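Table S2 (text version). Query chain:
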Amino acid sequence: MGVPTAHIAQDRAVEFTRATGAHFFDRRRFSASLMAALALARLEPVFPQGPDAGGATSSAPAPFGRSPRWFGFNLLEYFSTDPDWMKYFPYRNDGMFREDDFRWTSDWGFNFARLPMDYRFWTARDDSMKIDERKLEPIDRAIRLGERYGVHINIGLHRAPGYCILDSLDARVTGIRVTKEKTNLWTDSSAQDAFLHQWTVLAQRYKSIAGDHLSFNLLNEPKIFSTRDGASLQTGRGEDGGADTGDQEAGTQGAKTYMRIMQATIECIRNIDPDRQIVVDGFDVATEPLWELNIDDVIQSAHDYYPDAVTVCEAEWARGEETTALPAWPMANGPNKHAIGRDDVEARLLPWKKLGANNVPIHFGEMGCYKHTPPQVVLAWFDDALDVINEVRSGWALWNFRGPFGVLDTERRGTRFQDWHGHLLDRPLLDLLQKKMRT
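Corresponding structure-token output:
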């Protein structure tokens, strides 16, 4: 089922042309603005009463069938144009994805690589509608490597025109400098047009790639902030953590805005490439399922870093957050002095389990523990978290392959590393991950 914007999306797809003999995609004019498409897009809920409605919303595990059997890692070679991040992740922001990463991913039994990317690598600094196709060639190469080694490639915009979750960071607290977006994807038609343009170009470029080899993840970790008192619109909570009816209503509207933009983009992609697999992150930083996303065969993605005190312990970008220096799992003394364990993870992921029970395909596109979490805690947390995700009938991917959330070169103290072709392999973690894969 689509939204009633097909004629607009089709006009745009027809209008799209590749500049002959040039190295740039430059589509400066649209037959209609994305705002017009959004105005026409209606959100009719698949489950009108939400996740607690009767009937098919049983919490029993859904058949694995519709959810993709993807197990693997995120690769960061096109992650961010902001160089400060290279202090914390072992990559060079040059797009040169390493063949060994694909080879070893496959050799160890995994089949998935997510490429979270910054659109500014290939987009003109002064014109968000101008794309240099030469700088898309590293993505071409990654897709070819995925085909060679039987690894499904999931390309996504971690930074998109008008939005990036990293823009919420305060450099005065974290010490990490981020060049923030000058436009707002949720409110600016120019950003929305540029966002649609990115995916139109990518859909056109890769329409010959089989769906088994390539999928699109439209936007990483959507989150809409109010400008009043630091309240988060999607959670409906202010700085004191208390609920606010006005913010809850605004959060509902924010989720609808997000879904309308996703619907219009999906419609445009599918007019160019009808069979492309598309992944949409859940709302509120990929933690809340989109019960009203009324489009067939769209995979919803969750990210699992719960609880933060365990997974991002002492992470540089989490400075100022409530984290425990040396956490345990289960946590006997978590936030608000409450114990946290497997039951809490199950409760946290129950909405996703219910979504899957309604035959909606699901995938956990990110999860993991940062390098400062002790190794025994990491293994205990993964043991529980992956069991729960398996109950949801979903595949999963760690935030890193190489790096502080991964299995190679984590720099995690106390780990029993194994030398692996000049890298340090966390063999106990790798063994656990291989054991937990359910295919």
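Notes on Table S2: The mean pLDDT is 83. The longest helix spans residues 245-272.
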